């Protein structure tokens, strides 16, 4: 296992940088509540070119080394408890953006992030939706 920034990873930094993206698991050490997400390692922007109809494609490295999460819940927890109260783990890397999207979906469904509960009846994951299409409050237990 490698330590890359605040991430624990089975992959080296070079392997991650050469991938299109990765799926990750963030765990609050004290409560055990988890979050499954994805992060692209490259940012793609289309910029207009003077005198041309088509736009130029610009690729730049994303902020994945310092990235925490897009989850409001997770980021509030980091603000409250500090980054050290969480474990950041890279689960898998992917060679395309499409594979990264599918990998996140597959991981979230496999872990049943919308319905999984612990022995006390609390949700194990703080994911509130999958693909902004399937929501926890509409998921049947």
TrEMBL record:
It comes from the Bacteria. InterPro entries: GIY-YIG_endonuc_sf, SegE-like_GIY-YIG. Pfam families: SegE_GIY-YIG. Residues 8-130 form the Putative endonuclease SegE-like GIY-YIG domain. This is Putative endonuclease SegE-like GIY-YIG domain-containing protein.
């Amino acid at each position: 296992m490698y330590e890359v920034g605040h991430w624990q990873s089975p992959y080296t930094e070079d392997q991650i940088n050469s991938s299109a993206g990765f799926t990750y698991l963030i765990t609050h050490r004290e409560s055990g509540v988890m979050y499954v997400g994805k992060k692209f390692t490259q940012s793609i922007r289309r910029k207009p070119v003077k005198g041309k109809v088509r736009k130029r494609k610009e690729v730049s490295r994303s902020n994945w080394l310092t990235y925490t999460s897009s989850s409001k819940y997770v980021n509030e927890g980091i603000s409250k408890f500090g980054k050290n109260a969480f474990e950041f783990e890279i689960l898998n890397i992917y060679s395309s953006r499409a594979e990264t999207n599918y990998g996140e979906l597959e991981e979230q469904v496999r872990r049943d992030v919308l319905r999984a509960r612990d022995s006390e009846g609390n949700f194990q994951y703080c994911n509130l939706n999958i693909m902004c299409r399937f929501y926890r409050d509409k998921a049947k237990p």
